[in-house]
Records
---
Amino acid sequence: MAIIDEALEYFNYGVTHDIFKPPVTIHANLAIVALEKMKATPIKRGKAFWRNKYYCPHCSVQLYRTGMNYCDCCGQKLDWSRYEEVLKDVK
């Protein structure tokens, strides 16, 4: 995870301090988006009638399978650690 954080820091610094010039800035911004999706982000949870619903933290699409590692829609890496009781039911 430290490598991803270092790369994000490098690209963000380059973009915000005008070190990168176009078209490199376009590629740097794409790299930032891709690296941010590689970092596990806690899922969002909602309530619907009798059961819980879970959503991607990046694109807000509903996750139909618990324990998914990545969002099927946007590719965001998902962190289910808050909802380990959900994962126990699945296994």
---
Amino acid sequence: MKQKTHLKYADIITITGISERTFRYRMADLKIKYKNSPDLLFKKGHSWRIHVSLINEFNNKHTNKN
């Protein structure tokens, strides 16, 4: 079976558990950061295609201290 190399919005949301708003904020940063790398981040139609290596960019940036 062939592995996915690029993920869609819904895939990112289910894997990371982030909200829509957080996704939009992270995408705003990533669009600037990976502007010159169309193989990692590109828009097809109305949806973004995000390479699986960028999944760590969507994880929580802050952790709670107990």
---
Amino acid sequence: MITVSKALYALGINGGWKIKEGQIVKWWADKPQPSQSEIDTKIAELRAAEPMRLLRKERDRRLSEVDWWTSRATDGIELTQAQKDYRKALRDLPSTSSPKLDDNDNLTNVSWPTKPS
């Protein structure tokens, strides 16, 4: 969920404010308080970017699960073609997918490649 707090951090304001029920109730930051329009614009930008951010996060997790495959190559054990294809498909996901979020902010509309055994 994208909140006012996340928007303020994204605007480079790392503290000096208090939020209650989604509204700024106190401001003592060194930077000027952004307008509600600026906050709303930043929230919209963050919401638009969130599906791709989550895709990359999950993609990176899946890649890290199989990093040991490539480290074995230093011992002379080559990756199989299926392993190479899987890793490439994961790396390509940001350019081959159009991720979306459902009503519960879960990532959808992504076809994850099947991990070879």
---
Amino acid sequence: MLSATTRFETPHASKYLKQLCKHFAHKVSVDYDDMQGKAALPPGPAVLYADETALTVTVTAADQKGLDLAKFIIDDHLGRFAFREEPSLTWDTSSRS
């Protein structure tokens, strides 16, 4: 399995976590609360954590194509929901499993 993690610095992390999870729940299995969530994205699971300063997202997939798709899904949706903050996500893949 491959994984990638990104951190979006924002005071609205919990809001975006809930917004992403509610949106994903229309199509995939999701479990979340105010501070953490998990969405069963088609390429692999996305795990989200919110604190007072940032939203951290880790995506996992079986191969590079799936990992790239999972990162795109998060980039695209967070970009739409947090458009006022113009998120520019940098993904760290150094902790691949």
